């Protein structure tokens, strides 16, 4: 919704796909739209318009919004989510806002959809038609994705209690257009998302792949009579990493889960059924329940599977990953989050709240009398994911397997509150970090990292949540597996309850409410530090003000720190605000209830 966006189109510098560049960006590539120049020799310009949509995908980078929840704190006093969680969240100070970013992306995508039929991508007319079809599909899919993120961050109830979304823009806005547009209803925005995903799905292949001579029959019939060479030219493996039909199905599942959730649903149970079936469609395209059970080696450790990561090429995905960005050689995450003795800044400190959410190895919550939990020896016989995701006192880290001492009377800078970069909670982050990164200035090394946009585990957990609400813990609807089946597979993959048939899960499967709590907790654990907790609490209409806790360890005694950092949220803050600047400019926009 920026008037100047049509005047100058800034071509993306880097393609967000595999290791091969599809275009060579010019040093400076700003110019007016000129359909007469859309020739194969210069098709990189209109393609650059599309890439601006990719550049604005909100999941291109880590948010670590966990530090605004009960899962973590940050020692970075300038962290936007820290400020948000401690009472500084306003309609004009909003680090979660996607308004400008996503609407800018939608403007570029609308330009692309308006111009794509004028572009001669290649001289072969059949291949040119296929290119046009693919790029239309990408644009529709990306527009739906950006709309989903706008709803996630800005949908909410107006002053009359109506659930509102955002303005729906389906064509480029020009300088002469009316920008004073009202917000569409939440349901109308969802309909538009589904419509755009339908348009994407019908135009795109499930995945990009090359066919060989003799495989003509495997070319999808929807593309008509085309040769192997023509198909591979437009839909071949070279384009892996761009939007696909599989991604469209996954975005549909994500959006449907949001729409079915308590904060956005008016009690329509069919929305849970839709969300479950859409998630099942994604899982079924990857083997159904096997999408979880067969990913034992990858599902938990996708970020540290060194051989798997080293072999990534051409946008190909590991088994756990449905969609990812390109990999890069760096040490940024480790520099930010390794403990001080490993030359890191210790930024993200997991909370005692999160640590307590990990069950015992036998599957029981630590609060259950059957768990065998020992407060004097709290990290023994726990869920293996605890020490995989959280660096606890005495555990080792880094290239030299250095023991990390987080005790209150520790002598190193890793100790509790020792220096500015020390832990505030008694814990450091371990998840997402490669322990083979060396930060020592005399011998520093980088390692390969990538950022998932969507993991199959996320979709599996979405199915479990929706299926439990739609049909109960063991109901399947028209599918071949239940919420219980998914959670059992995820816990077995983690090593939970293997010696006692997961007795706690077996007791939970007879009650929807108990299973709901368990599913939400599994989602909390499996997806921690990946950008979900902040939004999950809000869509569940759950408590937001639970303070982040920590632990002080001294002489072998573990003492709870009941408040490391308060969480200051008003009840209306389960919905994010419309930017105050937009409200001032455009009176037709209605602010969400409670925000000024």
TrEMBL record:
**Has UniProt tagged this entry with the keyword Membrane?**
yes
Q: Which InterPro entries match?
A: SusD-like_N, SusD_RagB_dom, TPR-like_helical_dom_sf
Q: Which residues form the SusD-like N-terminal domain?
A: 66-210
Superkingdom as given in the UniProt entry: Bacteria
Concerning Pfam families, the annotation shows: SusD-like_3 (PF14322), SusD_RagB (PF07980)
Q: Which residues form the RagB/SusD domain?
A: 324-595
What PROSITE patterns does the record tag this protein with? PROKAR_LIPOPROTEIN
Keyword Signal attributed: yes
Stored SUPFAM superfamilies: TPR-like
Localization recorded for this chain is: Cell outer membrane
Q: Which Gene3D superfamilies match?
A: 1.25.40.390
Q: Which UniProt keywords apply?
A: Cell outer membrane, Membrane, Signal
Q: What family does the Swiss-Prot or TrEMBL record give for this protein?
A: Belongs to the SusD family.
Q: What is this protein called?
A: RagB/SusD family nutrient uptake outer membrane protein
Q: Which organism is it from?
A: Arcicella aquatica
